[in-house]
Design brief:
Strands 1-17-16-12-11-8-7 form a seven-stranded antiparallel β-sheet. Strands 4-3-10-9-2-18 form a six-stranded antiparallel β-sheet, covered by helices on one side. Strands 13-14-15 form a three-stranded mixed β-sheet. It has a domain at 18-243 and 353-395. By secondary structure, it is α+β, with helices and mostly antiparallel strands. It has 19 helices and 18 strands.
């Protein structure tokens, strides 16, 4: 890394040698670091961190949601994937939904109709079995201790909790399990979750079967039945993770790795392919020419991705074609430096997830992401479980001609995406990174990767740099942008046809995500970490 003495960031990167964890809450990061110090590797620490985040940040994540992972093995320099996303109910069809008068998942996005099988419990266990070294119960012990002993709620998490209070109270009869004295906890109040601790202990002692066929599974089915949910005991007991091959593209001297569909990592790769023929370093980082190019490249990438991404068990996604030089050249030809591309269907504005990154002392890395989708998901709490069920099913469409159409036992279009970057010449690890936030995620990946690679920023500076986020708002596509972008730049982008929305304050949490990056110096093996200042996060090292 080249030395940069400008110190434009408000926060310094964290450096270490024996291991590092970066995520959106310091207590969760410490749970991961403790696991490394107890002899675990990057995969063990990732699961420990993910479980702890369910305790400290239930507003975005938990065992009632899904998870994806990319694991880098320093010995083989290979990258392996885990797809921990759940499927729709075996009896859930478009016809059945339409018979209930439902024409779009947006109408029922936080109801039992949007509950898919929670894949996280199986995903955590499979991450340990495939890539880890420790017993699952030992990995979960830090999270169990946090849930039993209690944690102080941060101001950011309290605000997100308060925002979801009405959802929780109306979703199921068991809302009090995720409320404090009938309301959302306020900043500084202590939060314990004994029910969740019991579920974690059951999973650690009995494995995934204890979750899907035991107390948790029984109560998931029980709470959904009167709410017209679709999941059955068979849907839960038959759930399995999958282990697809990662997808990638070369950008400059690096190879960018993403999780394949049904995740949306493909969108980030398409955008980077469009951008790599431009000398990004010649642009002013906060000037209109660069932002215009980035926004329209992302728009094109979303158009392509949203047209094709679906469960590959049901629809063959033409990844090679979409990443080919020929297709990239065609997309690049649609760019106009003077006028923006007409906004397409674009991404929806949904942004709740947690992302975490771990690199251990041996150089193994785990890029891991876990999500309820929209905040607490549906807000539905299975009795005695202490967690909410995700609303990931709202990622389906009810158009029978679309690849991502609802079908029985199918995984929906998935927003959560972890990423890894390696040196193209040797495949040595360069960085484990990700940016959470629904449909912002591929946009965040592209922007932070450009900061890292083209502008040679350290991880913390790359995350602190202001970001934009496009989303759908018919009939116009809105581009939200942080207020640290100069006013003349925003004016010029408006003139070129973009509809700019200046985001300030707490809106930044929901629009621009919270990223984490750990870089590894290939010469010294020193780890450089950064955690997004838009949240409570921390990078901690050993």
């Amino acid at each position: 890394m080249n030395e940069n003495w400008n110190f434009e960031s408000r926060r310094s990167p964290v450096l270490g040698t024996r291991g590092m964890v970066a995520t959106s809450h310091p207590l969760a990061a410490m749970a991961g670091l403790q696991t490394l110090q107890n002899g675990g590797n990057a995969a063990d620490a990732a699961v420990a961190t993910a479980a702890a985040l369910n305790v400290v940040e239930p507003t975005s994540t938990g065992i009632g949601g899904d998870c994806f992972a990319l694991y880098y093995d320093s010995n083989t320099r290979n990258i392996r994937c885990l797809n921990g996303s759940g499927r729709s109910g075996g009896a859930q069809t478009i016809a059945e939904m339409q018979s209930l008068g439902i024409q779009d998942f947006g109408e029922v996005s936080t109801t039992a109709h949007s509950v898919t099988v929670p894949g996280a419990a199986m995903g955590w266990a499979d991450t340990i079995t495939r890539f880890g070294t420790m017993p699952l119960l030992d990995v979960l012990k830090p999270a169990i201790a946090l849930a039993e002993d209690g944690i102080p709620v941060t101001p950011v998490i309290s605000k997100l909790w308060v925002d979801s209070e009405d959802l929780l109270k109306g979703a199921s009869p068991h809302a009090d399990e995720v409320l404090l004295n009938g309301r959302a906890p306020r900043a500084g109040e202590l939060w314990t979750n004994l029910n969740l601790a019991r579920i974690f202990r059951d999973l650690g002692e009995g494995g995934p079967k204890a979750f899907y066929e035991g107390y948790a599974g029984e109560n998931i089915v029980k709470v959904l039945e009167p709410l017209n949910g679709w999941l059955t005991e068979e849907d839960l007991s038959s759930h399995r993770s999958s282990f697809p091959d990662p997808i990638s593209t070369q950008y400059r001297d690096y190879r960018i790795w993403e999780h394949p569909p049904n995740g949306q990592g493909l969108i980030a790769l398409i955008a980077l392919n469009i951008l790599k023929s431009f000398d990004i370093r010649e642009f002013d980082r906060r000037g209109p020419d660069l932002l215009h190019l980035l926004i329209d490249s992302v728009r094109l990438a979303f158009r392509e991705g949203k047209s094709h991404i679906a469960d590959p068990d049901f629809h063959e996604v033409p990844v090679e074609e979409l990443l080919s030089d020929e297709h990239t050249l065609k997309l690049r030809g649609e760019l106009d430096p003077a006028v923006c591309i007409a906004p397409n269907e674009g991404p929806e504005q949904v942004s709740d997830t947690v992302y975490l990154s771990v690199v251990d002392g041996a150089g193994n890395a785990c890029s891991f992401i876990n999500s309820n989708y929209g905040g607490f998901g549906t807000g539905i709490v299975p009795m005695g479980c202490g967690f909410t069920l995700q609303n990931r099913g709202s990622g389906f469409v009810l158009n029978p001609d679309h690849p991502n159409k609802l079908e029985p036992n199918k995984r929906p279009y998935h927003t959560i995406i972890p990423a890894l970057i390696t040196h193209a010449d040797t495949n040595e690890l360069f960085a484990s990174m990700g940016v959470m936030g629904g449909y912002h995620q591929p946009q965040g990946h592209v922007q932070t990767m450009i900061n890292l690679i083209d502008y040679d920023m350290n991880p913390q500076a790359a995350l602190d740099e202001p970001r934009f986020s496009i989303y759908r708002n018919p009939p116009w596509g809105i581009v939200s942008i942080e207020d640290s972008i100069p006013a003349p730049t925003i004016h010029e982008l408006n003139r070129r046809g973009h509809h700019m929305d200046i985001a300030t304050g707490s809106r930044r949490l929901g629009l621009f995500g919270r990223g984490q990056i750990i870089m590894r110096d290939r010469n010294s093996n020193v780890l450089w970490g950064g955690s997004d200042g838009r949240g409570d996060g921390a990078a901690v090292s050993w």
